[in-house]
Amino acid sequence: MLRLTRLLPWWWPPPAAAFPAKNLGLRKVASGVSSPGSASPRALNIFDRDLKRKQKNWAARQPEPMKFDYLKEEVGSRIADRVYDVARDFPLALDVGCGRGYIAQHLNKETVGKFFQTDIAENALKNILETEIPTVSVLADEEFLPFRENTFDLVVSSLSLHWVNDLPRALEQDTDEIQVNYPGMFELMEDLQGMGESNCAWNRKALLHRDTMLAAAAVYGEMYRNEDGSVPATYQIYYMIGWKYHDSQARPAERGSATVSFGELGKINDLMSQGKKSQ
After folding, report:
1. Res 47: pLDDT
2. Which residue from 38, 158, 159, 234 puts its CA 20 to 30 A from 172's CA?
3. In the predicted model, is pLDDT for residue 24 greater than 50?
4. Is 20 helix (H, G, I), strand (E, B) or coil?
5. Residue 60's pLDDT band (boundaries 50, 70, 90)?
6. How far apart, in whole angstroms, are the C-alpha atoms of residue 194 and residue 188?
């Protein structure tokens, strides 16, 4: 899930140290730590899901879609690293909003046995990246997945859920930031369009006047310009990985089975010292 900060001049920019990235030209990456009636009663109908499908399909049809993949490649790699941190394998996994398969390409068949990859855009699925893991591509909306409950051992999602209308507040934790330095605001907007990340909110303005855009670009550059003349945009990433319990994983001890109380933990150093003296 992605949130873009520093797009408008009044948003506070979190700091990050820049480093060059491959095939970005003047762009540099920095590392920081549907149907309206079908949604749940408490969901807000903010985004036009049909428009988002068209935007992603348009982006996937471009002659060089990989030109705009630098952010999705980076985040896909980071999510794969988090999967490897889980000490077990996953026979059946699901990638929700997979795009061209940015997570699967960084995983191996020893960790994931079979990967279902779903996306709202059929053109993205046609350009799925190769991976050693057996995969199944499914055209599906993130809000209406066609799978039975308790089907998968692992569920991942990368840079897709921020356009979902019904998203639990629980995703507002465990955040990462990636800063990209652009030649100017217009290059940033070009790349967002190329990623299929243009605004699809129902209340969006259909057209911004040229004078408004030029004024915004001037203010943006004046307030945030780097020493090398580039302007930064900070992408705030929300990670979510869910997996099913497996017998190979350690279970927590039963409640009340502890042999030492919290009150005695303060004496731990004394107890260890006594133990060493008695040896």
Report:
1. 86
2. 38
3. no
4. strand
5. very high
6. 10
Give the residue from 244, 277, 266, 279 showing the smallest Cα distance to 92. Answer: 244
Tokens of 21: 């990235």
CB neighbourhood size of 131 (10 A): 18
Residue matched to tokens 């869910």: 242
* Closest alpha carbon to 127 in 141, 142, 117, 114: 117
* Confidence (pLDDT) at 267: 66
Contact present, 232 and 32 (Cβ < 8 Å)? no
Distance CA 4, CA 234 (A): 6
Residues 111-118: contacts with CB under 8 Å, at least 24 apart: 111/83, 111/84, 112/83, 112/154, 113/89, 116/92, 116/147, 116/152, 118/94, 118/142, 118/145
User: What end-to-end distance do the CA atoms of the chain give, in Å?
Assistant: 55
Angle of helix 185-194 relative to helix 210-224, nearest 10 degrees?
110
Cβ neighbour number for residue 273 with a 10 Å cutoff: 10
Task: Assign 222 a pLDDT band (cuts: 50, 70, 90).
Answer: confident
The continuous run of DSSP H or E covering 175 comes out as strand 175-182
Q: Provide mean pLDDT across the span 72-82.
A: 92
Nearest to 247 by CA among 45, 89, 20, 77: 89
Residue 119 CB burial class (10 angstroms; 0-12, 13-18, ≥19): buried
Residues 165-180 have pLDDT tens digits of 876 543 544 767 888 8
pLDDT tens digit string along 103-160? 999 999 999 999 999 999 999 999 999 999 999 999 998 888 899 888 899 999 888 8
- HEC string of 65-126 equals HHHHCHHHHHHHHHHHHHHHCCCCCEEEEEEECCCCCCCHHHCCCCCEEEEEEEECCHHHHH
